[in-house]
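Researcher: Next entry in the queue.
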Amino acid sequence: MNGDNLNPYAIVNLTDWANLENADGSAFPDTPAKLRDLASGDFSAVTSSLNHLYNTLLNDGVVYSATVPAFRYVAALLGDRPSRAALAPPWEVGKFPLRGKLLTWLANVAFDVSIGQEQRIREWGKYSPTEPFPNFVDIRSIYPEAFPSIASYFDDSDSRVVEAALVVAVRFLESPALAMHHRRLTPLVENILAQSSSEWHRSLASEALNAWGQGRMLIESHTDPLPSGEYGRVHNSQENRGSVDEPPF
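Model: Structure for this entry, 249 residues:
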């Protein structure tokens, strides 16, 4: 990432939120305020902000125009070293870390705008092959600039955060621009995700290694036991439709 793309505060301050929408309508003033509160350290404010991410910017798998800069902001915030202390508030001791929750949100967004999901939506809604999915494309275009932020958590002190970061990275590597990272991530996917206590993480690891043609075949890919509407998404305790950018599931 370069320039303002690296600065979370520039992203939130320079975005024209009034011309963007979330699940409630206009993204202004709520979305920029909630994004700023993520690094406030205040329990109530952070909790409200997480709810906004999961319920207003990613409502039942639906992404909105405001989800695009919010996605860029969250990725930049995670990679912003001055913000690291604010993303580890003292009240979260014993809980799934805030940084892990933000990584999980990125992973869920990335799944919901994936090429596979887009194809399923096209088939379900009988969309034309040329029907544009602009929010999907715009979010996927962020992956190369956001990848360094995610990679900075591969050696996090909390193993749950490491796994969350690897899930995001696997999703991001759908981008051809990041294909050169397949070899680098292979041992991490083999030794961490593939050894996870989460069956879904183990399945994702197998699918990734198959797709990349890397590593060893550890397990057979299988259908996720979750209902089809939630296939491939990571569940989070904070997580609880419109245009072609709004998935019908």
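Model: The longest strand covers residues 21-22.
Researcher: Noted, moving on.
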